[in-house]
Specification:
Chain lengths: 332, 329
């Protein structure tokens, strides 16, 4: 297999939203990079900032978001583009959206307009980025539909979104995201709304697509089961920052950050008996007027008052390709 | 062995819309013992939510009985008793809903939400006593009583679910139907609420009917599990036994599809052809035959009944004595 290249480099990404009560900071300094042929899981619970961070990569956050930092996208020919500096409605970002970087969402029914056929909506992407020739564009779409396992694509092309089941519509959404052969696919909880047997089909499809297309997948989820099955590496987010990253097997086997440990402990593994589930005390604080110390301090049961009461820790290496933002010393 | 508290017998619910007939619940039979948790699992269109609603008589069933053994020792058919009796019995049967955002009236304070069942059923209770009961219940579910005068929007999803639980428990019921009670919550919040439900069950000798699509949660919390497909109960067995070795091909396929939170274990998914058929257009014979990998000609012709295969284990499959299926673990 070809050497994996860096395709996205996110540095110190911060997103603020001005509110009446003050400045909300749902993303407070996110750093990660993404390689071709790799699936990076971005894991975290509601409000941790994972969706906002990923939408910033496509510049599709709402206008009241103030984004700082750098999101460097590297094209096939090596050209580097900084997305944060692009205007959200500008020509530059529109050349990237749907072509070099695509996104699929949780609710496929909301991602399609109910007023137009699925085919008409899918072919729009091709008209924008590849060719305006109707026949070629339609063929490209039909071809991609076959690749994602939509049977009878000619018939489906002419149907409306309400005529598709949830799983089939998610496949159509994936096809729409892939039709222009993107470098990066961002998947925001794509299987949460689907039945478990359909979810399994979609996860397998994503793996297959990655093998065939060689693209990078940024997979956002709170479901640790899907992370374990599909992701090569995982980044765990809490309160707007990445607090741990590691290869998947390493993260599950040797979690370092107390939040990661708590999260893994909260999940019941089938066959694991019916003892009490570990639960993290309290709830996620509001991301406003936060003190400059570890975001997990108030809920952490492992904390050391002397070590942890100081400045917010950055990511430190704690193992091979394994980093954690924790003041406690875990080096063996 | 514990006494049976609920007997669902040949329960069916058909929704009619013009010429379309949807058999949401199709001839379902099972028993629940006092103090246990029975999980009901299945995917879209399987009828588990409708089943839950029929049991609390939020729906009037088309056929069948829901026999409930009340605190007075008598057995009542909830589907066929008169309104006066129903109102009395309903104090003993409550429901917890999935969506913590739509299941609480946004215009009522949390105090009033929890108080409402008390006011409705015990109009003559002195105000002070009602206040005491509400505060006690709030503490029991982990809510700070000093926040009770706030409105639901001031609380997080997990806290709102606790409010829903307090509201369901204020009358000290005996049977609670939890309809996807933790599905809308984050993983760590789910753990808190699941632990709470288990603690309360022990303390108050509650019986739970736990409806969910999440097999991991169901395995953790249930003593017995019923697997539903297109309105029919396909399998009913003690949880550990079903997960270790299912008897129905659909259970086998469902278990094989659950993503396991352990990257060392590779999933060996059993592929199911096609999509779940529409309940308005159910297949002939055994409803599952169009997607079953073990299908034989008989399966397309004859409908199935749920029958006992081993002690306490029931399965609806023509091939139940021939198949050797695999589970998880």
């Amino acid at each position: 297999m070809a050497e994996n290249q860096v395709v996205l480099n996110v540095q110190d990404l911060k997103i603020g939203i001005k509110m009446e009560e003050g400045l909300l900071t749902p993303v407070r300094g996110v750093n990660f990079d993404l390689h071709t042929n790799e699936t990076l899981g971005l894991v975290g619970e509601s409000g941790c900032g994972k969706s906002l961070s990923c939408k910033a990569i496509l510049g599709i956050n709402s206008k009241n978001c103030i984004t700082t930092g750098a999101i460097e996208f590297i094209e096939k020919d090596g050209e580097k583009k900084d997305i944060v500096s692009m205007s959200c409605a500008g020509k530059e970002i529109r050349k990237i959206r749907g072509k070099s970087i695509s996104m699929i969402f949780q609710e496929p029914m909301s991602a399609f307009s109910p007023l137009f056929t699925v085919g008409r909506q899918m072919v729009e992407t091709v008209y924008m980025h590849v060719t305006k020739d109707k026949k070629t564009a339609k063929e490209m779409v039909l071809d991609t539909m076959k690749k994602v396992g939509i049977s009878n694509p000619e018939k489906r092309y002419r149907q409306y979104p309400h005529e598709f089941s949830g799983g089939m519509l998610q496949r159509a959404l994936i096809a729409m995201a892939l039709v222009c052969n993107p470098r990066i696919l961002i998947a925001d909880e794509p299987t949460t709304a689907l039945d478990v047997t359909i979810q399994a089909q979609i996860l397998e499809l994503l793996k297959e697509i990655q093998d065939n297309y060689g693209m990078a997948i940024l997979y956002i989820t709170h479901d640790l089961g899907t992370v374990a099955q599909i992701c090569d590496r995982v980044a765990v987010m809490y309160l707007g920052r990445i607090i741990e990253t590691a290869p998947t097997k390493e993260l599950f086997a040797n979690p370092v950050h107390p939040y990661t440990k708590g999260l893994l402990g909260s999940v019941h593994k089938i066959g694991g008996g019916s003892g009490r589930l570990f639960s993290i005390e309290g709830s996620v604080p509001l991301a406003m007027n936060l003190e400059d110390r570890c975001g997990f301090y108030d809920r952490c049961t492992d904390k050391d008052v002397l070590l942890c009461g100081g400045v917010e820790p950055g990511l430190k290496q704690v193992g091979e390709d394994h980093y954690a933002a924790c003041c406690l010393d875990f080096k063996k | 062995m514990a006494e049976t508290i609920l007997k669902v017998e040949n329960l069916s619910k058909v929704f009619t819309s013009g010429k379309t007939k949807i058999r949401a619940v199709n001839n379902v039979t099972f028993h629940v013992c006092q103090g246990e948790t029975v999980g009901i699992v299945g995917e879209s269109g399987c009828g588990k939510t409708t089943l839950g609603r029929c049991i609390v008589r939020a729906h009037q069933s088309t056929e069948g009985k829901v026999l409930y053994r009340a605190a007075d020792g008598q057995e009542y058919d909830l589907q066929n008793i008169d309104k006066k009796q129903l109102l009395k019995i309903r104090r003993e049967i409550q429901m917890i809903f999935q969506d913590p955002y739509s299941s609480l009236d946004p215009r009522m304070t949390v105090y009033d939400i929890i108080l409402e069942p008390l006011k409705a059923n015990f109009k003559d209770m002195p105000k002070k006593e009602m206040e005491e009961r509400v505060k006690t219940m709030a503490l029991k579910v982990g809510l700070n009583p000093s926040y009770l005068k706030r409105y639901p929007h001031a609380f997080s999803g997990g806290q709102r679910q606790r409010i829903g639980i307090a509201r369901a428990l204020i009358l000290y019921p005996r049977l609670i139907v939890c309809d996807e009670a933790v599905s809308a919550l984050d993983v760590s919040v789910q753990a808190q609420v699941i632990n709470l439900l288990k603690d309360l069950q022990k303390e108050m000798n509650l019986t739970y009917l736990f409806i969910s699509h999440d097999l991991s949660v169901v395995e953790h919390i249930s003593d017995k599990v019923g697997v539903m497909y297109l309105g029919q109960m396909m399998e009913y067995a003690p949880t550990k036994q079903l997960f270790r070795k299912p008897f129905h091909p659909y259970s086998e396929a469902l278990l094989s599809a659950v993503p396991i939170a352990d990257p060392e274990i590779e999933m060996k998914r059993i592929p199911l052809n096609g999509e779940i058929p529409s309940p308005a257009n159910a297949p002939s014979g055994c409803f599952f035959h169009t997607r079953c990998k073990y299908v034989k000609p008989q399966c397309a012709k004859d409908s199935v009944e749920i029958l006992e295969k081993e002690e306490m284990r029931y399965v609806a499959c023509h091939l139940k004595d021939e198949l050797d299926l695999s589970g998880i673990v």
